[in-house]
């Protein structure tokens, strides 16, 4: 149970949203064919982003790996721009399972006093960078007075930027984004255009947006991997509604089998995986990524079943430093029992919850 003092700093008028963020309009895909024996639920809805950092979900959907494991239970999907709006959807029952960054997962868990969600798997490490206009920003000292974008207030990259700025002595209002550096929250889909039009001077964003900005003339000032020991940190987890997990553990385990198979396939078939990712991005966005951008974005991520739980507490500490969170008690945020059962059945090593399990 979370201590009562462990509450995030929220805007009262936006208290229903992660870290005070406003929900975005999300797009639901059409149904995917289901066949075979139905599990305990008629359907399951998963949420994810049209980002390369969500490669597991993109490939799992595109290759039919989730639906194969679900049999006659219908797979439905919903696509989001960033994590806080996905947590809202999970809390409302609009989705059951979601691929999401650590900061919104932490915030959702804390706000619900440990009752809303559980982290049940890892998905991706790496794949986030601060990229900037090289004519205006040559070093961290040049950030003062500049405008830097993130995908959404309180999302994982937003927290990373605010934490970084705080560590460098910059003063910021975390909710408004005003301060020594102006932090503006805009949809990843419009970030490149905003950069090209001079509306922003840089962005701390996930892949492929970071590589798209570099292709548009930006340069990488900070690859977030450089800020973490061993270059590993959780970028994307898999979370589940606790009520759905309790009611339909067989469905959750089926999705996790699909997730593990997707990660194994991506590692074994990187070129085919890039094609599958791009095909799904084209279906979602209307156009594929250019080859150079895709190669760069894919090369910057690592898919992993391991949720890298030892890095989650540090992610929470970043939220505290950013001024968006009071120091939380994350005990119980993980339930890796279903994942470890899948891994055992596949002959793969078990993964640890770093003492933060139920």
From TrEMBL:
Has keyword Cell membrane?
Answer: yes
Task: Check the UniProt entry and state the signal peptide residues, or none.
Answer: 1-18
Q: Which SUPFAM superfamilies match?
A: Periplasmic binding protein-like II
- Presence of keyword rRNA-binding: no
Known InterPro entries for this protein? ABC_SsuA_sub-bd, NrtA/CpmA_ABC-bd_dom
Q: Where in the cell is it found?
A: Cell inner membrane; Periplasm
Which residues fall in a coiled-coil region?
none
The protein, known as: Aliphatic sulfonate ABC transporter substrate-binding protein
Record organism: Streptomyces humicola
